[in-house]
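Section 3.1 - Work completed
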Amino acid sequence: MQLAGDLDRGGFAAILSPPGPAAIQISRIMRPDDANIAGNVHGGTILKMIEEAGAIISTRHCNTQAGERCVAALARVERTDFLSPVCIGEVAHVSAEITYTSKHSVEVQVNVYSENILTGVKKLTNKATLWYVPLALQNVHNVLEVPPIQYAGKEQEEEGRRRYEEQKLERLETKERNGDVILPVTNPDPYTVGHSQSSLIHLVGPSDCTMHGFVHGGVTMKLMDEVAGIVAARHCKTNIVTASVDAINFHEKIKKGSVITISGRMTFTSNKSMEIEVFVDADPFVDEAKERYRAVSAFFTYVSLSQEGKPLPVPQLVVETEDERRRFEEGKGRYLQTKAKRQAKMQPLTQQ
């Protein structure tokens, strides 16, 4: 059954909410082919849904003014926490809203709710912030200007500008340190980086791509989550689920016909979580003049669960080289920083 509104790509029904293209909601029932081995929906499936909602609302907004037509391309996804699992048979409702626009970019904030259609119970499962840039249909290298939005007040606009400047700086820093490669290890010992590291090779086909002939951001994120899940499962050999994704940075576009290599390696373990670095390298065979390049990078965090869905201790990562020790300490720093932010948010609630 199609909901009110028009059917968008991915089989979603999109409902425009007031005030028009500044906010939408899309919904889809979760099917068995969306599940992992534990029966929950893949984290990558949720990420793909989030990106599709962001792409729809951004593209619609950027085409609300007269002039050259465009498609919004994903540039960055801020940290995304998986607050609750989504089960097969539930309906996922993805609400997207444009919250800030700069001259050439759009910030979209997305909430995901799961609904048990037998009981009517809904719960928040994800919150995400995405950044898009509008690329001209006729010339993909031409970034168009974004129509401005109306803000509720000056403070809201200033907060949006602060977020924009922060993500712009972080994207630059990430791109500068993106030179690492993952090399195969012969006969690695258990719980070492080499033991669990994994790669997936994928030929980019037409169904993976936008109207421009470049890969959808959601397709890339789903593949990245699959590789990260393999790394986590190899390390602890239990049921694993995505707990969060650190900022995903899209450094360069990936063209149809390219062969992409998605690589993942363990960087840090705490008592109950694993951080996995994932990056995507592209070989543009169609364009022989262009060499292999780093297209996307991110850090995924996974947790290990028992058959009853209870958190299990994670085997500690064995580091063997100076580079692995450095990455471990950097991961530990990100873990402690996230933990401190979470405790800071909880403190006002406990004082009430």
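Second construct:
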Amino acid sequence: MSSHHGQFLRCRPAAVGDNRGSAAPMRTTSHPAVLSPAKKTPGIMKHFLRVLTQFFVFLYCKCLWRGLKFVARKFTGRCELQRICYNNKHGARRTLKIESSLKYSKNELLQSALSAHPDKVEKIIDDIMALKKINPDTNPQLGISLQATLLQIVGYRNLVAEVEKLRREPYDCENEQHEEMLMKLWKELRPDTPLTGRISKQWCEIGFQGSDPKTDFRGMGLLGLHNLLYFAEHDKAAALQMLHDSLLPKHNEANMLEFEPKNVDKAIGYSFAIVGINITDLAYSLLVSGALKTHLYNVAPEMATLLHLQQTFCYLMQEFHRFWIEEDPSDIMEFNRVRAKFHRRVLRQLRDPDMALCPRFAASDLHLVNL
């Protein structure tokens, strides 16, 4: 799994060229490689073309692009922000363009809008309208669109900070709230089986590695527990089905039996809770890298919240479960390979600015649609 947990062993490759116990190795003489002028030429040309490309990109960004913006404004009578808002529907396609326009603007007011407090967004929109000499009475929809877009941008930044805070908070067994959440997780996943004690091998039945789950939360802190509990509470049928499948010796749709926690250590599925923590790590990396902007800008009309991320986590858990079955790995040692491949697939999906990961939640009060 991920480096945060070190859950699964990695095969150590056999040493190569080990001469112990054998005859002395034959001495070889190495000569420094000498490149002919013909071999040097392609390298020099590649370097020259790279520098030339960078120069033209710089020239385009500094001169031509600004010139084109000036001409477009004179021709259309609209500034860049107006053109983006009027030519793109609400969602990631528009918000990403607005975000880029503000980021690379030379005006400090426009740049500062990206780090504005949510309570100050309305005033900043008024200031931008005044700066661009846009009459709000004749352009009423523009202010509304800019406000919703800017709330998405600052909301994403605030969500990253909130998630980072949860990730950095370690599980504390002396904290009553932490313990209550953990006990609730057990009751949601094993409602008919009482827990014999706080420290118990029973935790392995829901996919923890040892007798005390707190050691498994080290990498993702409370964020992992929050996500697992949300999944178990709000998408219970899927969570119970995944837990059931993870304990089976083989993934087979015909094996829809009651829970059989026997032979847990010999199952070739995966550890449900540990996988949940790893998928939390995957969702976290998508968030902080900015890859998740596409999805969140398409599903959150204004500010994205922790709820949106938790719903995304539920989606990723279910999709990973299907992907794991499709890949049909021989054993748990292939987890890192399957996870990396799944990560790449999600990244490819999120490159589409119209992409929205649309799970079906039984208890969701938000409609995840592309607005």
